[in-house]
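This part of the workshop introduces the protein records we will be handling. Getting from the letters to the tokens is the skill we practise here. An example says more than a description, so a record of this kind follows:
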Amino acid sequence: MTEQEKPAGATVLVIDDDGRIHAALRTILEGAGHNIIEAYDGGTATQIFQAQHDEIDIVIMDWKMPGLDGHNWITLLLDADPNAQIIFCTAYDVDEDIRRRLEMQVVGFLDKPIDQERLLSFVDKALAQRRATTSGPPGE
């Protein structure tokens, strides 16, 4: 496959209050050819997503941060963009019932420390789903 035939990388909004997580995700994702937009708090993340959700392919966010809770934010994201592709990244145990309830709304839950292979697998899945939901039927 030539460089021209490769699909463009995803634009990924990374939301986490830990700079080390940002650095790790940036290294992995940019190394795989993706573009990163970073937010360290809920207010900034909300502003970015509301202004740029058409350009953002994937959101990777911490489940728990000051001023930003996974439950509340998933509603905000999906209200702004019903096709938002969300990957939660967390060091906390998320109740199995919550995970099951959210299964149809999110790509998955990625545990910290981050497993690079699993992260990139989730990103590939999210990008494929995003492209399938944002492109019209063939021939349009």
About this structure: The helical segments are 19-31, 42-52, 70-80, 96-102, 116-134. The chain has a mean pLDDT of 86.
